[in-house]
Specification:
single chain; 450 residues; mainly alpha; 3-stranded antiparallel sheet; 3 strands; 3% strand
Length: 450
């Protein structure tokens, strides 16, 4: 069925006529609508003698109604005379009622108007209901559903400003939500720059959203921190390269020093037998000894310091000629001197063996220096004690000085090979006393006669 817009029918003024002429015919849609409303109307109304009179009546009706669309639902139907000079004032025929005379057609017009008003009210109510449903979805954050409902409402009431604004707000929220979601996704991937960009675009549509504002602040913080970290790492890389270059320089200098040390050690190694050992007596010419004329020096694995040889007690002029009672010491003093001498004799050798075994030949120069220092310190301590005795110091002070020398020599002895000696036995004490007397007499000799 053809859909026709229903418009109000206003009063059509036409002169009465005596015979059938032109008529105004209504559209089928209007006739059917009136029938459904319970107010059936005829298909044709009015009688006009000429076509011009009918057109004039239709134009007058449209003008008086103020609705130009009224002409869409009525037109002239031919059936009368269209002769020049003809009019509707004939004397013959049955007079027909005229629109507007004696209230003819007014009820029909009121029905059409009411129908239009009711239809407009129904449309407004439907738009209102759809708008409320959209508001409910908007409050729940369902922006897509809210947008759909607002658009349905605008189809019914396209000019409603409230619904139009609600649609704009929902579209802005949906766009901001989508941008915010993208920003959160890249935020989780630590892409701070992209996250900040999405958050800024979201704030352009919803400037007052506090959640997006906070997320933008966080993303910007990490973006700035990342830039600072990048600068720090670049600086650290530069400093690391500088440190590596400095380390290479130091390593080169160390290698150079080691080369110099090795060269110095090579020189000292040739002189080590004379520095650390006592040369053997040269064999007389013609001797059968295969080592005659050679120097018997110790190896670095058997480093020794100058110590008095184990020879029988020899009386010296200086000692025999001195009648001072301080020169004859108690046996305990000679035992102490013997213990000191044993420490002096063994400590550097054991120290050298230990250090060389642990560090290898590269540290031999240091071993030589340490051994020589230990022996020099111990011998100086013993010499000071003997000098005190030779000058006739009181026995108590002399013993105190000897004990001090003993402490230093024992410390050298203990530190050298980390082995605290056990208390000596009686046999060891006797041997220590004998050796002490030998070494004491040897040290007491004039320096040129040793």
């Amino acid at each position: 069925m053809r859909v026709v817009k229903v418009l109000p029918i206003i009063v059509l003024l036409a002169a009465s006529c005596a015979w059938s002429a032109w008529e105004i015919e209504y559209s089928d849609g209007l006739v059917e609508a009136m029938a459904r409303a319970g107010h059936p109307i005829p298909k044709r109304v009015g009688h006009f003698a000429t076509r011009q009179e009918g057109l004039a009546a239709m134009e007058d009706a449209v003008a008086r109604s103020g609705d130009p669309s009224l002409g869409w639902n009525m037109w002239l139907a031919p059936g009368g005379y269209d002769e020049p000079g003809a009019s509707s004032g004939g004397e013959e025929g049955i007079p027909q009622p005229v629109w507007g005379e004696n209230g003819y057609g007014i009820p029909f017009y009121n029905v059409i108007r009411n129908m239009r008003q009711q239809a407009a009210q129904r449309r407004a109510q439907k738009a209102h209901d759809l708008n409320l449903e959209g508001n409910e979805q908007y409050s729940k954050g369902n922006w897509s559903q809210a947008i759909q409902l607002y658009r349905e409402a605008l189809k019914v009431a396209p000019d409603d400003p409230v619904i139009q604004q609600n649609l704009k707000n929902a579209e802005a929220k949906e766009k901001a939500h989508a941008l915010h979601r993208k920003g959160l996704d890249v935020y989780q991937d630590r892409d701070w720059a992209a996250a900040a960009r999405y958050f800024r675009e979201a704030l352009q549509t919803t400037p007052g959203d506090p959640v997006i504002q906070q997320n933008l602040k966080d993303a910007q913080f990490w973006l700035d921190s990342e830039a600072q970290t990048r600068v720090f790492l670049q600086k650290a890389a530069r400093e690391r390269k500088i440190a590596e270059a400095a380390r290479e320089t130091r390593e080169g200098a160390r290698r150079k020093r080691l080369a110099q040390t090795d060269a110095a050690f090579a020189d000292l190694q040739a002189d080590a037998p004379g520095l650390l050992g006592k040369p053997a007596e040269a064999t007389a010419p013609g001797s059968d000894d295969p080592g005659a004329g050679a120097t018997a020096g110790p190896t670095l694995g058997q480093v020794r310091v100058p110590v008095p040889p184990s020879f029988p007690v020899r009386a010296t002029t200086a000692i025999e000629g001195d009648s001072s009672p301080a020169m004859e010491l108690p046996p305990t003093v000679y035992q102490i001197i013997g213990l000191i001498g044993e420490g002096i004799k063994n400590a550097p050798r054991k120290l050298g063996e230990t250090v060389i075994t642990a560090l290898g030949g590269g540290a031999q120069l240091g071993v030589i220096k340490i051994a020589k220092g230990l022996s020099d310190e111990a011998r100086r301590s013993m010499q000071n004690a003997v000098d005190l005795i030779g000058r006739g110091y009181p026995e108590a002070e002399t013993i105190h000085q000897i004990k001090g020398s003993e402490s230093r020599a024992m410390k050298i002895y203990i530190d050298s090979f980390s082995d605290v000696p056990m208390p000596p036995s009686e046999e060891e004490k006797q041997e220590m006393e004998i050796n002490g007397r030998k070494w004491f007499q040897w040290v007491a000799q004039p320096r040129g006669s040793r």
